[in-house]
Automatic annotation (TrEMBL):
Annotated ATP binding sites: 345, 360
Top enzyme class: ligase
InterPro entries the UniProt entry points to: Folylpolyglutamate_synth, Folylpolyglutamate_synth_CS, Folylpolyglutamate_synth_euk, Mur-like_cat_sf, Mur_ligase_C_dom_sf
Cofactor: a monovalent cation
PROSITE patterns attached to this UniProt entry: FOLYLPOLYGLU_SYNT_2, PROKAR_LIPOPROTEIN
Family listed: Belongs to the folylpolyglutamate synthase family.
UniProt name for this protein: Folylpolyglutamate synthase
Keywords of this entry: ATP-binding, Cytoplasm, Ligase, Magnesium, Membrane, Metal-binding, Mitochondrion, Mitochondrion inner membrane, Nucleotide-binding, One-carbon metabolism
Example of a GO cellular component annotation carried by this entry: mitochondrial inner membrane
Keyword Oxidoreductase assigned: no
Pathways per UniProt: Cofactor biosynthesis; tetrahydrofolylpolyglutamate biosynthesis
Length: 513
């Protein structure tokens, strides 16, 4: 049995007490550009595929139709790109859906497999600073030159054949990721679903090696439904005939849906065991903090073991089993779990200006609760109980500020700051961080709601709304001085977290993402 030390993000997992080169299509005008500007041009064109807020609103009524069109469209694009099912299947994919913990689970699985010398591809969303973070080769974001080169290959072909029906941003990136993974000859791809599962464009793959469903919670309810059973239906949409699927524990109603969908698709389904059922070879501090990460670790361990069994890849010190049970986790796997890095999730950044940042991309009820618990433990661990605390918070899309914010009340925060999740007040369409999906006015309105909802419950309300992340950041930084230490919790949106990480990186010249 493993022993979990005090319920802290630093909780250590204890050992048992006993013991085809494809040619670029045509000569694009961009081939004359220098490396960086070619990359910038690719990001600008990519951003032009984002739907703006007005279009999203207009299309809302046709959502179901559009959803159903996603996969047939993807198949057409793949055909144009000459990417066959056979090539996709040869990527040996681990496909992961779920509401919370997809990225973390994928990151753990990737770190473990890379540790065994496999050439890995990792596709995740969203990104924090650079769009290239979404497509990783051997754990590192694909480089600018490769990104731009493959971008124009895909863009030129699709533009030529589908100019009146260009793929939207996420769909395009998914196609680009497949193209890059094939070109880079990766041996395994860990693929995170964008939204839902059933209609998500990542679901164009026909034969993954194994599927995972992480913790379920309420998010994107206008698309996926407002009941956990409806949400589970979408997530189980990635299940395939005879492809094993493993899920993190969930409610009975959601579990019933997962089971019945698995049965109807002839998917062997099992639940990931608690992390306490594994025997870790040594005490470890997992690379992503917080006890909520334990379920992601267990799921990742199961996915990796099942993947290895299906691929007949030997994992030293791990025995295969027909059961989804805890197993002996050898030293090298402990090292891999510890080495996993997943910025923007329970991340602590110390600066030399008397400010400590706690950053976490929580944006659903369950993750906000997890974030609050993690932050409380981190504050104690860092001995910052008596330090002035500021909350930088924003919630986006159809999420409700008052529902989410309430989880942060026990943290002793004295001031809330909110702003749109835009880095600067003027939009730079060639920037990696540009997000056109949400209108500025709507975001300002949301920021005001966040502050209002927080202030209502405070004895001394002093919330502030700024017009962009950088003005909010400058305000917060100006609040600190040698005699005034500050602790800042940044949460509610990964875009907000990414923006702040970007600004801290620029200011301190440290690499955080
Ligand atoms: N198992 C979990 N249970 C509850 N909250 C979690 C869990 N795993 C991660 N989180 C929370 O969710 C946030 C995002 O984590 P992660 O990137 O792993 O999830 P995701 O499913 O990829 O999210 P997204 O919807 O942003 O793509 C974290 O910052 C953390 O607050
Ligand atoms: Mg999500
Ligand atoms: Mg994600």
């Amino acid at each position: 049995m493993i022993r979990l030390l005090p319920q802290t993000n630093r909780a250590l997992l204890r050992p048992p007490t006993t013991t085809t080169t494809i040619q670029a299509c045509g000569v694009n005008q961009n081939s004359r550009m220098s490396g960086t500007s070619r990359y910038e041009e690719s990001v600008r064109l990519l951003n032009s595929l984002q739907s703006n807020a007005a279009t999203i609103k207009k299309l809302r009524g046709q959502r179901e139709n559009l959803q159903a069109m996603n996969l047939p469209q993807c198949r057409k694009y793949l055909e144009s790109l000459r990417i066959s099912d056979k090539e996709l299947n040869a990527l040996n994919i681990i496909h992961v859906s779920g509401t919370k913990g997809k990225g973390s689970t994928c990151a753990y699985a990737e770190a473990i497999l890379r540790h065994q010398g496999l050439r890995t591809g990792l596709y995740t969303s969203p990104h924090l600073i650079h769009v290239r973070e979404r497509i990783r080769i051997d754990g590192e974001p694909v480089d600018e030159t490769t990104f731009a080169e493959e971008f124009f290959h895909v863009y030129d072909i699709i533009k030529k054949e589908h100019s009146d029906n260009m793929p939207a941003y996420f769909k395009f990136l998914t196609l680009l990721a497949f193209r890059i993974f094939i070109k880079m000859n990766v041996e395994v791809v860990i693929l995170e679903v964008g939204i839902g599962g059933e209609y998500d464009c990542t679901n164009v793959i026909e034969k993954p090696k194994v599927c995972g469903v992480t913790t379920l919670d309420y998010d994107h309810i206008s698309i996926l439904g407002s009941k956990l059973s409806e949400i589970a239906w979408h997530k189980a949409g990635i299940f395939k005939k005879d492809v094993p699927a493993i899920y993190s524990p969930t409610t009975t109603e959601a579990e019933e849906v997962l089971i019945s969908r698995a049965a109807s698709k002839s998917t062997p389904l099992s639940e990931a065991p608690p992390v306490s059922s594994y025997n870790f070879a040594r005490q470890i501090a997992p690379g992503i903090s917080g006890i909520h990460q334990f379920s992601n670790i267990s799921l990742a361990l199961q996915l990796v073991r099942t993947w290895a069994e299906k691929c007949e890849f030997s994992l030293p010190g791990v025995s295969f089993s027909t059961k989804t049970n805890g197993f002996d986790v050898p030293l090298w796997m402990c090292d891999a779990i510890e080495s996993c890095r997943w910025p923007g999730r329970s991340q602590v950044v110390n600066t030399d200006r008397n400010i400590t940042y706690l950053l976490d991309g929580a944006h659903t009820p369950k993750s906000m609760e997890a974030c609050s618990e993690w932050a409380q433990e981190e504050i104690v661990h860092l001995k910052k109980e008596n330090v002035k605390k500021i909350l930088l918070f924003q919630c986006t899309a159809d999420r409700c500020p008052s529902t989410l914010i309430q989880y942060l009340k026990p943290l002793g925060i004295s001031q809330i700051v909110s702003c749109p999740t835009q880095l600067y007040s003027s939009v730079d369409k060639s920037a990696d961080s540009t997000n056109l999906n949400a209108s500025r006015d709507e975001q300002m309105e949301k920021a005001a709601q966040c502050v209002k909802s927080w202030n209502e419950s405070m004895d001394h309300p002093n919330g502030k709304v700024f017009d962009c992340i950088s003005s909010a950041f400058e305000f917060i930084e100006s609040e600190a001085s040698p005699s005034q230490e500050i602790l800042v919790l940044v949460t509610g949106s990964l875009h907000l977290v990414g923006g702040v990480l970007n600004l801290i990186e620029t200011k301190t010249h440290q690499k955080l993402v």
